[in-house]
Structures are given as C-alpha cells and as structure tokens.
Amino acid sequence: MDGVIIDSNPLHRIAWTEYMLRHGVEMTEAMQHKMYGKRNDELIREFFGSQITDEEVIAHGAAKEALYRDLMRPRAGKSLVPGVREFIDCHRNLKIALATNAEPANVDFVLDNAGLESVFQVIVSGHEVVNPKPHPEIYLRVAELLETPPAECIVFEDSHAGVAAGLAAGMRVVGVGTTHDKLPGVSLFIRDFLDPALERWLSMTRQPQAR
Q: Is the pTM above the cut of 0.85?
C-alpha cells in the first residue's frame, strides 16, 4: 500500500521524526531507511530498546500512525501514485488483493480517502500474520485466500523487504520507483503506473490470475 497505492513515505519520515523527537530521540537517515517495508512493532522495539513492553509497543505504534494520518489527511486525495487508480480500474476483471505491513487503521484511512475500499477481493494487513515482510507469509496467505497458485501472482512493491517477500513466495515482482531508484530481483521496474512499459510487459506475460 505505502509507496504503491499512495506515495506516503515522505510523510511517514516526517511523522517518525516528529514522534521520536517528542520522546527525546533524533531520527538518523539510517533509522529512516529501516522504516521502508517494515512493520511498526519491529521499528518501535529497535528505536526504543528491547526493554519496552508489548503494551508500550502497541501504544507507540498507534500514536505515531495517528500523527501520520493527521499529516496526510489534507493531501490524501492528491498523494496517490500516478496512474494507480486507472490501472486498477483497467484490470478489475482479475483477482486483486492488498498485502501490507501497515496497521489496519492506516489501511482503512488510505482506501476510504482513495475511494478504493471496494476493489480488493482480499486485504491482509501486517497484524494478520506472524512474520512481516521480508518473510513471504503475507503473500502466501493472500494467494491462499484468492485460491490462486503463487506462481500466477504478480506483486507490486516499492521496498527491498517487500520485493524479498514476493520473490520468496515464488511470485513475479514489479518494482515501483517511489522509494528506491533500484530494486534488484524484480521482473520489471516502473516509475509509476503511467509507465508504458508496464502494459507492454503484461501483454507479453502469461495472463496472471492475481494482482
């Protein structure tokens, strides 16, 4: 979702910076890069230390994401990755799923603001699997729910962790260049969904059963 449907990582960086400063921690560039494609519980434990309790992890994650939604709310409609809505509309004949490490509240927020709440047959958030990306569990779970072999699925990802998860699940991966300039291992790299190379590649690829 983040970086594929909505170009949200710049605001996530701001939210992390502001939230950690409230707790006396200055975010470094290395800390910011750890954010991409990872689940909040991993980041909170790393940023606040191993002594933090599970309850504190949940509270910090929820508070940080509430701050992100406050920042994103005025601009959510203008922050969709270019062409994504049209691309989804064009391929509604296929099974379409959303697999994200994001918290459920963020999933609802993005889909409601984008008007995309009804386009996904399956939605699996990071809180519904034991192992977050880069583990393949979330993508294998999506394939199972779609009743589609992993080899017939195409994953769209913007992060290294997400690409690793898709490849480990045995799926083809299209890299979306909102976050990184290169994503090794992908079958195709596009800047956004307006890239004409995407439809050309799909036309040369055996018709996928899941997206």
A: yes
